[in-house]
Amino acid sequence: MKRYIGVRLIYLVLTLFIITTATFFLMKGLPGTPFDEEKLQQLPTEQRQKIYASYGLDKPVVTQYVNYLGNIVKGDLGTSFFYTGQKVTDIISGRIGPSALIGLQAVLLGLAIGLILGIIAAYRHNTGWDYATMIIAVLGVSVPNFVLAALMQYYMGLKWGWFPVAFWESYSSSILPSVALSVGVVALIARFVRTEMLEVLEQEYITTAKAKGLGFIRIMFQHVIRNSLISVITVLGPIVVNLLTGSLVIENIFGIPGIGSLFVDSIKMNDYSTIMGITIFYSAFYVLVMLVVDLLYGLVDPRIRFASGKE
Amino acid sequence: MNHLLEVKNLQVSFFTYAGEVQAVRDVSFTLAKGETLAIVGESGSGKSVTSKSIMRLLTQTAKIKQGSIMFEGKDLASLPEKQMQNIRGKDISMIFQDPMTSLNPTMTIGRQITEVLRKHHQMNGSEASRRALELLDQVGIPNPEKRLKQYPHQLSGGMRQRVVIAIALACDPQVLIADEPTTALDVTIQAQILELMKSLQQKFDTSIVLITHDLGVVANMASRVAVMYAGKIVETGSVDELFYQPKHPYTWGLLDSMPKLHEKTEELHAIPGTPPDLADPPIGCPFAARCPYTMDVCYDHMPPYTEHSDTHRAACWLQDSRAPKIDRPQAGGER
Questions:
Q1: CATH number for the segment(s) A93-263
Q2: The domain B3-222: what is its CATH number?
Q3: Is A205 in contact with B153 (Cβ distance < 8 A)?
Q4: What is the ipTM of this complex?
Q5: Partners of residue B87 in chain A, C-beta under 8 Å
Q6: Which parts of the chain span the membrane according to its record (chain A) (predicted)?
Q7: Is A129 in contact with A190 (CB distance < 8 Å)?
Q8: Residue B63: other Cβ atoms inside 10 A
Q9: Where in the sequence of chain B do the CATH 3.40.50.300 domains occur?
């Protein structure tokens, strides 16, 4: 098991290296620089050179790349071009809180409601319950979350005054964006759980469980749910990464200072170091979550555990 | 009443989009204490549906339309689900065809056995584990302590079927329904499993309903046989009666289609044709279309049972006193 995790961590570093390299050179291919070129042209050449040099942009791209990699190894993602003088690591860690909180709440809420709806739909297969849940699921997937967000802002925020309409002031500011984000998760999870459970319910071992005289509740909790979870974990991985690393749309609508909005801003400003920093952060998180997902598989499904974890 | 289980006029239908499929049509049989009744027939003859009806494990699309299944004074055909749960696994239990799929892949063998003990005997964890160990030992699994903690995929097919048997026998059931218990196993393992079932039956005086299409298994295991065809029992009798004095042409066909060692021919006997469509079953004898001795009456009227002994009955017009005498060609009896 330890060996398995070790190997996976080596792969993780390798993946990150490739992603960093690709992003670095792709970003260099972007038109424009972090500076206002028109104004820069008015400066004397000497001063221009100095500005470039202070950011290390005067050197050949390959040298810049090597320097950058060297800094990453030391845990330094460089300083921002836009937020002058601020370290990228500080900027990201300052922005991660709101995104992570909203994302986590959205995932947990979405997972809980999605599981319940999916179980109901599967158990009451082909009845009004099933159809109702699936309509909710289709709506959840097809209604864009910014429409929902706007509606919630208007009614729950402005009209009834239950929650703050926007901005990041207190915990209650996180509720509306979390709910808005979770709807998509609910829909996705509900559909997955339903399909998967219907398949598990058809399995022979469920008949065996019934033949033991077990009641519905026991069969559900001890036999069906665990076997249905395998596919749910698969979809949950990317969802967790997406939501925890910030949704640009939702963060923009609610005016939340999260990673999502930071990413968009940094691309608009050609803020090289911040773009790189967020990309690396995002990828590292993604690869880590995937590792956790794979370990979870083993936890849920002993067949996978023994196949991969021979000690 | 000395019958442990009495199925009377059972009718089961599947309600599909294409219409009603009459899988079991008026089936009656009894099961005495300690005996083994084999139900034989080809795929789709309704033998599995009959057995699942007794356990009330039919899918939602299937319905018991008519008939009764009497067990200890209760009619299982109409018993509420909650009471049925107290019978399943305790008084009547079941062994399934494919041990590869009939065990939960994410649960240890131990838990799958103790589960049924906890449900019916309200045992606590350690009591149940002790009993599970004992059961694994009884079904001939070496290293039971180790096996308890393992998952199904770590066991071979034969071992898994032993586990399935251990689960079925955990609560000392009075009736054991074995639905093709050896079909999915290697031939060498088949014999072991059958021997195991036989010895456990003698030990606990369990009654067995054995569903199979393998006449070799029948000869080995059963005391009585019911031959099913197109949802009906066409002939029933003791093993000797059925093998040595079969009366129904379908039974003849079945017996002839068993490969025999002493025959030199390379050719295998088969019954020509296919069973009728049970969505639109024939009004007369269901075997008429495939029977080499068909008479006009066969197509229009279902033959009544004729009794040949206390235990031996067959539903065939050839047995009617007005019918021409036809003997089974190249009479069997080599067994």
A1: 1.10.3720.10
A2: 3.40.50.300
A3: no
A4: 0.87
A5: 213
A6: 9-27, 102-123, 135-155, 175-193, 228-254, 274-300
A7: no
A8: 14
A9: 3-222
